[in-house]
Amino acid sequence: MKELNTILKNWNDLYDFYYNEFLKTEDDEKESELLEKCYQIGEWIDDLKYKINNICANK
After folding, report:
1. 8 CB contacts (<8 Å, ≥6 apart)?
2. Per-domain residue ranges for the chain?
3. How far apart are CA 29 and CA 57, in angstroms?
4. What does the pLDDT read at residue 32?
5. Based on C-alpha coordinates, what's the Rg of the chain?
6. Low-confidence ranges of the chain (pLDDT < 70)
7. What is the pLDDT of residue 29?
8. How many CA atoms lie within 13 A of 48 on its CB side?
9. Mean pLDDT of the chain
10. How far from chain centre, in Å, is Cα 34?
């Protein structure tokens, strides 16, 4: 479980990094790429949270 929480933290940090880069950029194409990365990482985070909750519920 500790490993999953570490992965979740790392993905949250990565999401924050890309989101902050999105806020700084003025390039429309780069904005789009950064938002796509945020969206994908957000999906990974949601999936992992769901799996962690299922593991906790089944204990």
Report:
1. 45, 48, 49, 52
2. 2-57
3. 42
4. 96
5. 14
6. none
7. 94
8. 18
9. 94
10. 12
